[in-house]
Fold:
Amino acid sequence: MNAQTVSQEKGHVFKRASWFEHIELIMALISGVLIVLAYIAETQEGATWTYVSLYLIAFLIGGYAKAKEGITDTWETKSLNVELLMIIAAIGAASIGYWMEGAILIFIFALSGALETYTMNKNERALESLMELQPEQATRLTASDSLEVVHIDDLKVGDRIYVRPGERIPVDGRILSGSASVEEAAITGESVPVDRNVGDEVFGSSVNLNGVLTIEVTKLATETLFQKIIQMVQQAQEEKSPSAQFIDRYEGRYVQIVLLSVTAIILFGPFLTSWSLETSIYRGMILLVVASPCALVAAITPAALAAIASSAKHGILFKGGAHIENMGRLKAIAFDKTGTLTIGKPIVQKAMIHPELDTATVYRVVSLIEEHSTHPLAEALVAFTGKHEGEMRDFKDVTGSGIEATIDGVSYRVGKQKFADRSGDFFREEVEQLKAAGHTLVFISDETRTIGAFALRDTLRPEAKTAIEQLNKLGIATIMITGDNEATARAISSEAGMTRFIAECLPEEKVEQIKSLREEYGSIGMIGDGINDAPALATADVGIAMGEGTDAALETADVVLMKNDLVRLSDGIRQSRKLNRIVLQNVIFALGVILVLIATNIFELLVMPFAVVGHEGSTILVILNGLRLLTSSWK
Structure:
């Protein structure tokens, strides 16, 4: 299947999913309203048919989606499931006159199913945002060197393509002629463009900023590094969570045991006990009601929703209960550098000016030259030196090196060390120290000597150091994974107080590092903000995105820091750990009540009203216990 077909088919899937998730939620809410109306009607004399009809409609509307899902899954897998048991339990409750209990059971499952559908479809939209960055057309050079526009699927290995300034490079390849600054943020996540010259490899979906390139195609459109990113996100999303795998593994057995137990009581009760057939049916129906996992569902879902709501108020968006549960189990968190730990924009950290020259004069020259440059470092230099008036002539942008220009009759060079560093050892030692600390150096020289140098580096977010310190106190290992060089990675990691760092990682290498860290620590989180982080976010046990991150990162992640406040990470982990404690309490309590009710039913000590009270009462208690998370302290 080619890239174009995949994109079209995904678009249709997303539209259908969006429509279905809203219909499912609306049906669940309508079912809830009907239950309230039926309960009111039930308190009125002579309204029997009215409330029974309302309950019946609530059954049909609320239970349709789950009944269809249960029946379809049973037919396809030839195995019973919890959805089917819930429908049978609800019908069983109604069959002995307890319409409201059956309807409430249907409502709870319909609502949880709608929320689950919404969350799953929300995550899958990550693929759509990723695909929008993949060019669909390329300009190919023919054998006679004429230009023709073709679809990227028509490109073959060895073809030559022509890429103009400002265009996205359509596929992976090798530069045959030309040079340019290339923004590879879609691949590496780094904000500073890299210089690419003849013989260098370039990646599909990266942006050619300022040069004309002729590129030899080295990979088909379906095999590019960017396509691998899309495939990795899709593959990771299709992998079920441990909780989902656990349910899949045991739900069939649970349903079989319950249904077989009910059937055995009804069929063999009159022969093995002193029960009559009516008593056996009665006991069987009670078992069907009390054995339904309504309280178990309530033990987890309301508590998780309360924790999610509370977290949202404090700037943390969890995309589902499973993710907030998993966050409390994390043993380590991997951090992307640029835009996550750091602000994502380089700023001037230090200026070194020749002692014989006036600082203001050098600043004026740098400002006048850099105002005409499109390089990302130019903005930082202008912001540092300020805007100045003056005339400039003979402006020349030397791709990959720097800029030449004449001001007040003097020729100046601004750029890399090899290009602009003519002579002068007055700050040589300091330059080497700054390089070792991960700074980028920009030099300025006149016609005879180097007159200054500026050290630039991305800076830590103001709250980063505090956030890392709090995570370390919680026993969470902090690891920085970045595509940047080792010197920069070491400097940022040390400044932030990280446990360790891993440098020079491409997206597929980040995924492998996440898998390796999972083997080492047991449970790993990943936080990032770029498109290149999407595969790692999807692979991690919990993917966390910065609120100002790319659409791909936001859609792929399980958790979003809406206000980009890293300190909220430790708050979220504490909230998650409290949720896990409450869920454990609820599960133990719910299972205990179910076992007690089953035992008392077997010994004929339980009647239907008390069964209902025990079943619904335990449900209410676990819900109230979970709702404590709405008002829990975040300090």
Observations:
- Residues 1-17 have pLDDT under 50 and may be disordered.
- The chain has 22 helices and 22 strands.
